[in-house]
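Consider the tokenized backbone below.
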């Protein structure tokens, strides 16, 4: 079960063990962690699961490309869109995610 590191806007770090096949959004919401809302349930329709993932991380190389739908939804995220922005509902965990650092924005709504 890969461990993912959540980094909150205030710098607080939490480690979350996530079952392979689960999206990062579902794992964070199911664990009751703050920072991701996931209002639409994971269908890339609300951008309340916006996160930042530094692509310089080795683990980030296994992330899927940003789809056209995800790209459009990221434009409606409440927090600033950055080059590292992703929707966590579109990131299904694999073993290659072990140690991935996921930065949470200052707000989702």
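A designed sequence for it:
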């Amino acid at each position: 079960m890969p461990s993912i590191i959540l980094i909150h806007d205030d710098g607080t770090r939490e480690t979350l063990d996530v079952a392979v096949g689960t999206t990062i959004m579902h794992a964070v919401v199911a664990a009751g962690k703050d920072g991701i809302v996931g209002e639409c349930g994971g269908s890339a329709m609300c951008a309340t699961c916006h996160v930042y993932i530094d692509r310089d991380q080795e683990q980030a190389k296994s992330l899927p490309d940003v789809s056209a739908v995800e790209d459009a939804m990221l434009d409606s995220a409440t927090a600033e869109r950055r080059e590292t922005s992703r929707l966590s509902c579109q990131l299904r965990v694999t073993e290659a995610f072990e140690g991935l650092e996921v930065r949470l924005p200052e707000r989702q709504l």
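The two ends are 30 Å apart (CA to CA).
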